[in-house]
Amino acid sequence: MTLPPDVPYDIAVIGAGVVGCAVFRDFSLSGLRVVLLERGADILSGASKANSALLHTGFDAVPGSLESRLMQEGAARYRRIHQGMGLPLLPTGAVVVAWNAADEAALPGILERGHANGVHDVRPMGADELRAREPHLAPEARGGVWVPGESVIDAWSAPLGYALQGIAAGGRVLRRAGVRGGTRDEAGTWRLDTEVGPVAARLVVNCAGNQGDIVEAIARPSPFEIRPRKGQFVVLDKTAYRLATAIILPVPNERTKGVVISRTAFGNLLVGPTAEEQPDRERAATDTAALESLLAQGRRMIPAIAQETVTTAYAGLRPATQFKDYQIEALPKEGWISIGGIRSTGLTAALGIAAHARRLYEAHFATLPAFEEPEGPVMPNLTEELPRPWQEDHREEIICHCEMVTRREIAAAFDGPLPAGDLGGLKRRSRCMMGRCQGFYCFRRVMEIAAPHLPDLVSPLGGAR
Ligand SMILES: Cc1cc2nc3c(=O)[nH]c(=O)nc-3n(C[C@H](O)[C@H](O)[C@H](O)COP(=O)(O)OP(=O)(O)OC[C@H]3O[C@@H](n4cnc5c(N)ncnc54)[C@H](O)[C@@H]3O)c2cc1C
């Protein structure tokens, strides 16, 4: 529902990452008039476009932290709704592998922390059981801790589905709508200055990720400072998928969970991420030295990785702060809810964070009716786990042969209430150009379908950029 600029929405959510999409969903389903403001050309323009796509159990979180609670609540909600939305859940499990005596000494503490977090099914795994389960691991693997609940999901279809559910409930998504500032009038209405004009709202929810402290300054001096932490990844070809069934985790340290080897929902094997502080909030560049180091670490854990081909590399920026825990707070006097510092677990926690935001709203602003989880929409399946359109009889022609994406799937990315807003959005909705050739063969044919919908892509000379 679009409201004129002088009629306030009940809530304006700033930032359409996975957290903003989940918050938008829940408040819209609660019957409020909600607008989701995103500065990018599409949703998921920030941290949420590039992560490891793991649905965590929270076994290694700080017990009693907000992050621990909301990860568990978020994962539980995802598990309840994913089937109805056609969203994947690969129940891979994970094993924290000990590679040396120091790692072995850390295992009892990892078990204890898992239990303290209420994850009671974590258990020790001996070297023989580990070898039987993961025969490609290097012989130095001494056993570890088995975490059966860790899983792999599709990090893009889930938040898109949340946003579509919010729209179906009456919410509105505005893209290219960066918020530049705002003032609050005497009646308590926010007048946000956005790139698409003024937007009025009674309450603002700041979900701006790596811009979180800058957006927070609209309401007050930000109590948290964003310190972006880059994570680089190497994506191995689909032939490498067989080399690990479970997620292979190292023994973590205080700063990072360390380099992980994991299957992806799309049939690849992932090695990463790094953890690198950087001042730049926008650009997440990959560099050869870091990628080579990741590959070397991957080969030490699974030597057969040496024979595998790299499909691509990417990097994401975690919205970290000076604090370890999430920075979530309601400011009743300011008509504002801050959701900051959702560092490295936001995909898992998003629906838990949204439920928490609802609770804060009820505690400080007004009561809300309970809502039924909606049925659908059913998201297009992009994974290898379920049948894909190219496998159907009488399918349309395949345009992207690496990822087996049909013409219909590419065209469908531009249908509906939240069509792809840029090339990245098209890739995240269809997987076209994300395979081995990275668009080398299919780019022109993809552009024939996409260019009419993406005017930014067409250069003044008439060619696709
Ligand atoms: C390397 C890496 C690996 C990770 N692995 C996992 C994992 O396996 N599992 C897991 O659960 N989590 C993981 N995460 C964490 C997860 O990706 C983040 O916690 C999550 O993406 C944060 O989401 P967000 O919505 O808070 O931020 P973002 O996704 O950054 O969203 C913020 C949005 O706000 C927009 N915005 C900013 N300023 C403005 C403005 N002024 N006006 C309007 N819009 C604005 C941005 O464009 C952006 O789209 C990982 C993260 C990284 C980087």
Automatic annotation (TrEMBL):
InterPro entries, from UniProt?
BFD-like_2Fe2S-bd_dom_sf (IPR041854), FAD-dep_OxRdtase (IPR006076), FAD/NAD-bd_sf (IPR036188), G3P_Oxidase/Oxidoreductase (IPR052745)
Q: Which domain of life is it from?
A: Bacteria
Domain (FAD dependent oxidoreductase) spans 10-357
Gene Ontology molecular-function annotations: oxidoreductase activity
Q: Does the keyword Ribosomal protein apply?
A: no
Pfam entry (one): DAO
Going by the UniProt record, its keywords in alphabetical order are: Oxidoreductase
Question: PANTHER family of this UniProt entry?
Answer: GLYCEROL 3-PHOSPHATE OXIDASE (PTHR42720:SF1), GLYCEROL-3-PHOSPHATE DEHYDROGENASE (PTHR42720)
| Full protein name | FAD/NAD(P)-binding oxidoreductase
Organism, scientific name: Teichococcus deserti
